[in-house]
Predict the 3D structure of the following.
Amino acid sequence: MRTGGLRSVHPVLWAGWAALAAGAVLCVIGWYGVSGERYAERQLPYLASCSIPGAALIIAGAVLLTHGRGALAATRVEELYGLLVAAEPSDADEAGQPAGAPLAVSGDLLMVPGGTLWHRADCPLVAGKVEAVPVDAKLLAGGELGPCPICEPVEETD
């Protein structure tokens, strides 16, 4: 399932790397040409034909790589969402829960160190992760952690 998304983003990443490499080569050629000329008027053709287009290709390559990585991340999120939607019951399950009920129902709240969300213990994003730890009350009270949009936990009140 994952290979289809990777194949669609892969050409953008390759184009980004190719643009970066071509830009670097043009900048080196331009630098070499400029360094061999004593007078400014003889250096200008190297700047115009190599250095400036090389810098533009480097910028274009960086933009393509950023777009490719963003598209790759979006594809992974869509795959996760597709898996979660497929796991939800169509109308109601055997327990009588409506289809819009959250996937996770545990009352225990967990977080991943360095993360920005808190989750229910049976949330698919933290279930089975050994690094998931109970939510620190100071982080929760300080507003540094937000609720997970997938398992939709409610904040515990003491």
User: Anything to note?
Assistant: The beta strands are 109-111, 117-120, 133-134, 146-147. The longest strand covers residues 117-120. Confidence is low (pLDDT under 50) at residues 96-102.
